[in-house]
Amino acid sequence: MTTFSSVDALIDALRAAGYFADRRLATAVFLALKLERPLLLEGEPGVGKTELAKALSVVLQRQLLRLQCYDGLEQREALYEWNYAAQLLHMRAAQAHLEAGPGDAVAQVEREVYQDRYLIRRPLLQALQAPAPGAVLLIDEVDRADEPFEAFLLEYLGEYQVSIPEIGTVRAAVKPVTILTSNRTRELNDAVKRRCLYHWLDYPERDRELAIISAQVPQAPEALAQQVADVVTRLRSLPFSNAFQRAPGIAESVEWAKALVALDTLVLDPEVMTDTAGIMFKQREDVAALTTAMAESVLQPPQADA
Ligand SMILES: Nc1ncnc2c1ncn2[C@@H]1O[C@H](COP(=O)(O)OP(=O)(O)O)[C@@H](O)[C@H]1O
Ligand SMILES: [Mg+2]
User: Fold this and answer.
1) 304 inside domain
2) How many domains does the chain have?
């Protein structure tokens, strides 16, 4: 497996893959790799949780396996299921043989339907069985799944193994690098947290936001990219319960920079801000809340306190 001699080496590798990590995040990732522990990333939507797992699979040169969680997600979509249709065909083909054959032929056919070729592997099992150098397993938005599903994950998270009744215990050949993300729509089970290293991922500070915008929208003039980073950072620092319902994420600031370039904008003004509010905000009330007066105030450079 690709290893990193230091946190700085990891920061550089991630940057080369297009991901800008601050030191605290990189330290958490570095430790998760060194200690071979799953890493739980919590944070607001759009702060770069999913993207980190993608970037990590690139720098580690491991395949990315992704399990998107949702309400009602079941084990058979996460781990494995049997190819029922193929099993039925197998039984039918064996039927003639059964009718003629000895008594124990029935048991034989029953065993045969649990052969490897009738097993459909889902991301967790794929991750455990991935050949060297192993996989990166992203268990995305685990807060959307329900509590029984979290309980089901415990064996995997604690021991990198799962128990399958018909097969036995499947243990990881190479421990998958495992990233869990949560948008914190609900509190996760303590048992899950205990098995993971934890990192709260915040919005980037202004300079990192600027670096991301400049990297992803190289056609944006430097002055414009700076303005976008300033405005987005200020919008996020407003007391949101009063002003907006949901702050713009990094994807929104990148989109906004692209839109401004498409409109040939060189310098932000309140009018272009309100005209393009739908790119930064995805809630009707928030779009309406970005009034000209509000736009004017966030465009002002912050006043130095006297
Ligand atoms: N640190 C970062 N470096 C580069 N791009 C980033 C970073 N964080 C977020 N992004 C960009 O923002 C987008 C949204 O991030 P994403 O990982 O989907 O957020 P989350 O999973 O936290 O909701 C990504 O597609 C990526 O383009
Ligand atoms: Mg995500």
Assistant:
1) no
2) 3
Q: CATH no. for residue 75? A: 3.40.50.300
pTM of the model: 0.90
The finding on whether 211 has its CB within 6 A of some atom of ligand 1 is: no
- What atom in ligand 1 is closest to the CA of residue 18? 4
**292 and 164, same structural domain?**
no
What mean pLDDT do residues 94-107 have?
Answer: 71
CA 252 – ligand 1 centroid, Å: 10
* Concatenated DSSP letters of the chain: ----SSHHHHHHHHHHTT----HHHHHHHHHHHHHT--EEEE-STTSSHHHHHHHHHHHHT-EEEEEE--TT--HHHHTEEE-HHHHHHHHHHHHHHHHHS-TTHHHHHHHHTTSGGGEEE-HHHHHHHPPTT-EEEEEETGGGS-HHHHHHHHHHHHHSEEEETTTEEEE-SSPPEEEEEE--SSPPPHHHHHTSEEEEPPPPPHHHHHHHHHHH-TTS-HHHHHHHHHHHHHHHHS-TTTS-SS---HHHHHHHHHHHHHTT-SS--HHHHHHTHHHH--SHHHHHH--HHHHHHHHSPPPPP-
Do residues 54 and 145 share a domain? yes
- Mean residue pLDDT across the chain: 92
- Minimum CA distance residue for ligand 1 atom 16: 48
Q: Is the pLDDT of residue 151 over 60?
A: yes
Answer yes or no: do 11 and 139 share one domain.
yes
- Ligand sitting nearest the alpha carbon of 49: 1
Tell me the best of 250, 258, 279 to mutate to test the pocket of ligand 1, counting ligand atoms within 8 Å of each CB and taking the most. 250
